[in-house]
Every structure is written in structure tokens, then in C-alpha cells.
Write a structure and sequence with these properties.
The complex is a heterodimer.
Chain A: H1 2-22, H2 31-44, E1 49-51, E2 54-57, E3 61-62, E4 68-74, E5 84-91, E6 98-104, E7 112-117, E8 123-131, E9 136-145
Parallel strand pairs in A: 1-9, 3-9
Antiparallel strand pairs in A: 2-4, 4-7, 5-6, 5-8, 8-9
Chain B: E1 7-10, E2 14-15, E3 20-27, E4 49-56, E5 59-66, E6 75-81, E7 86-94, E8 99-108
Parallel strand pairs in B: 2-8
Antiparallel strand pairs in B: 1-3, 3-6, 4-5, 4-7, 7-8
The chains are: A alpha+beta, B mainly beta.
Chain lengths: 152, 109
């Protein structure tokens, strides 16, 4: 029984490491990035994100972290057969990294959304896009924040 | 329900059939994160809009789940295909059960 338990634990650990490698993370990933990874899996299930197709438009330096404009656009024909189903924005360094999830339809016409977000500190922002065929694409951008915007 | 005076939008009054139009919206809301403290050091309770939806003649165009990091007085812009004349309905749902609504009449020719 003891051996089985150990093996299971090892299998789980190996699985986690393999997943981290698949996600293209430098191991060991910082705690903030790991938390964001976990939340991303909660949103999208197990996935393998590919770089490309997603464009994240944001300033490199935020004057204030209280209201930073962000635009996420995805290359997609937005037809019934081939469209972007979801866009998820995560800020790795925020107290709760998930910022917003957008659920698009072919009626959206263009896979592009803009809004304004709070940033607690200098960090990496991620944008994921999930397509109708189940593929996941990702873009990342680092942003320097001089004054944090989450209160406290 | 009358259009909420806390909602501002920029949506064209008319569009050509099949045209992709931009919808810009802003709603007046504190989006209190639940992380701030008042002068007495007491935590100010969280109070945010958690869900946003847009439909065109009842059909979903886009919807969103929002969390604490969406800024106060949330701005959102996105696109929609002009299919038929009718009503574009926008709705914001906050976690205290309040709903803000805005209906825009559009002419598609």
C-alpha cells in the first residue's frame, strides 16, 4: 500500500512537471505564474497554449495601475465553423489574477475586445483565446506599474 | 425597464446589413474590490459587477465575466454584425442583485 501511495504521489508530481513544461514555462515557475496557470486550467480545462494569433495591446509602462486600457484581438474569420469562443485576461501579479473572461459568438463579427483594468504592481499580463475547434492561443506582455491600483 | 442613466454608450444609429459595427459602453459603478480599508481601518466590502451581456434582437452577441481587477466605472468596447433592424440590449449584473440595462434602437438597411 505504501509503495502505491508513493508511486501515485510521484505520478502526480511528474504530471504537474510535464504540464508546466508543455505550457512553455521556465521551471521552476514563480509562484504568481503558477497561480495564474492553475486559474487558467480552471477556466479552460487541460490545454496546451500556442503562441500567436492573439495580439495584446497595452502600454509598456502604466502611469497608474487603477485604470489601464487593454485591447485583445485575435486573428479569426468569426464564422459559425471557425470562430473565437472565449478570451481570458489574467494578470499574474494581481491579488486575484483572473481579470475578465469574454464569450464571443459568430455574431460578434470581429474577435476584439477592449476594457480597462487594475494592476497591483509591475507584472506579466496574459491573454488567452479559445477557438471553436478547441485550440488555445496565448499572448503575454510585461507591464511596469509605478502606482498599484488595487487599493489597500 | 427604462435605460439606466448610469450607462453611456456609443453605437451608430444605423448600419448596412452585414456591416461590423463597434459598440462602446461605460457604466458608472465603483467596482469596489473588497481589498481597500476605510479611514477606521475596516475593510470596505466587495461590490463589483460580475457579468455583462449584449444581445441583438434577443440573440447573444457577447457576454463577459468580470472580476475585481476590472476598473471602476467599467468601459468596454467590442463588435457586432449588423443583421437586422431592432434592439441591441446591454445588461450589467452586480453581485448585490442590481441590474443596469440599456436598449439601443438600430436601423439596418
Amino acid at each position: 500500500m505504501d509503495t502505491t501511495a508513493t508511486l501515485n504521489r510521484r505520478a502526480v508530481l511528474a504530471g504537474t512537471a510535464a504540464w508546466a513544461a508543455a505550457a512553455g514555462l521556465a521551471a521552476p515557475a514563480p509562484a504568481a505564474a503558477q497561480e495564474a496557470d492553475e486559474l487558467a486550467r480552471k477556466l479552460m480545462g487541460p490545454f496546451k497554449a500556442k503562441e500567436g494569433r492573439v495580439r495584446l495591446k497595452m502600454r509598456d509602462v502604466a502611469a497608474s495601475g487603477a485604470s489601464e486600457p487593454i485591447t485583445v484581438s485575435v486573428d479569426s474569420p468569426m464564422t459559425a465553423a471557425d470562430h473565437v469562443k472565449a478570451i481570458h485576461v489574467l494578470a499574474e501579479g494581481n491579488p486575484y489574477p483572473v481579470v475578465s473572461s469574454w464569450y464571443l459568438t459568430p455574431r460578434s463579427g470581429r474577435a476584439e475586445i477592449s476594457f480597462r483594468m487594475r494592476l497591483a504592481k509591475t507584472q506579466t499580463v496574459r491573454a488567452y483565446a479559445v477557438t471553436s475547434d478547441g485550440e488555445v492561443w496565448i499572448a503575454r506582455q510585461d507591464i511596469t506599474v509605478t502606482i498599484g491600483g488595487c487599493g489597500g | 425597464m427604462a435605460n439606466s442613466d448610469r450607462v453611456k454608450v456609443r453605437i451608430p444609429p444605423k448600419a448596412k446589413k452585414g456591416e461590423i459595427i463597434e459598440i462602446k459602453t461605460q457604466v458608472s459603478h465603483d467596482m469596489e474590490t473588497g481589498l481597500r480599508k476605510d479611514a477606521a481601518g475596516k475593510t470596505i466590502p466587495r461590490h463589483i459587477i460580475t457579468r455583462f451581456t449584449c444581445t441583438w434582437n434577443g440573440e447573444p452577441v457577447i457576454s463577459a465575466d468580470w472580476h475585481q481587477a476590472v476598473s471602476a466605472n467599467p468601459f468596454a468596447s467590442f463588435f457586432a454584425v449588423a443583421t437586422a433592424s431592432g434592439k441591441i440590449k446591454l445588461a450589467w449584473f452586480d453581485e448585490n442583485g442590481e441590474t443596469l440595462e440599456y436598449v439601443h434602437d438600430i436601423l439596418v438597411e
